[in-house]
Amino acid sequence: QVQLVESGGGLVQAGGSLRLSCAASGFTFSIYTMSWYRQAPGNERELVAIISSGGAPHYADSVKGRFTISRDNAKKQLYLQMNSLKPEDTAVYYCTAPTLGYWGQGTQVTVSS
Asked: How far is CA 88 from CA 37, 43, 109, 111, in A?
């Protein structure tokens, strides 16, 4: 069955960095567009970054220049490198294969000021 398992979240001070990982299984990872979403308390889930099967990335304006999405098709891993973190980046971050409709359980990122 399809599984997406995020890891790498944690507590970091503003200006710091974190790298999120998502381990995928149960589907042909290499042919699917993958994305990261996040949801802060009281807010709707929002798109953070998306990467095509060919590796072309797109970012939400709020994270451009600070976050980098990447993938390793051989390892079936999706990554999100987050630099220059801000308190407003605090949220649960989710990995998803949008066209499959599957989501991971999420990983909490907390940025202190």
From this structure: 14, 12, 10, 8
